[in-house]
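Residues pack. Consider this:
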Amino acid sequence: MDLKDLSFKLGMIFDTADTFRKAVRAHAVKHKRDVKFKVNDRDRVRAVCNNDGCEWMVFASLMGDDKKTFKLKTLNDKHTCAMVFKNRFVNSRRIAERYVGQWSANPDWNYSGVAQQQYARFWDYCAELKRANPGLTVQMKCTTVPDEDKPHFQRLYICLEGLKTGWRAGCRPIIGLDGCFIKGHHKGQLLAAVGVDINNQMYPIAYAIVESETRDSWRWFLELLNVDL
């Protein structure tokens, strides 16, 4: 059963409860819906939409004396809610399940080559940010490496027009600075400047990705921030 393109229908048969749960998760991810399991035990599984007012629901349970096979017995397959872009079912385990076949079929897959392709698209990313956010400041800095003709990414600074305008208009004349490590395959530091709004809440102003937290990287960040504010 191809769960990625599955459409629920009354009377559908699933070989196990786990297969039915996987189908529900695949539906939630594909259609960008906030779905949760309301009833989830050995004999029955009921999933509903987590948004108030949306009556989407599926219910399946064991077939008679069969101790394994599940049958879809109740279905309301129409969502009336808005899509969501943060899904509880998109986690490391689900991603591994989704791509394990491709990874197994390509054991020599070059991760670094894919990463290089993504870094090469940083210019497109910056151009799209400028197109979608008039007045935004985005500054990328690259370095050259001996014996290589292509530049290497070093730093990226971003300050949205709405944030710097909002800071000037309604925040206290206070700026806090901090940096933190970026964990993962590609290391670096995240530098950030935050203000304090009239409710004494933190107000983001600008941020930058840099190679390390040094006097030079902080000077570069603060010089750009000074121009923006």
Notes: The CA atoms of residues 86 and 207 lie 22 Å apart. DSSP finds six helices and ten strands in the chain.
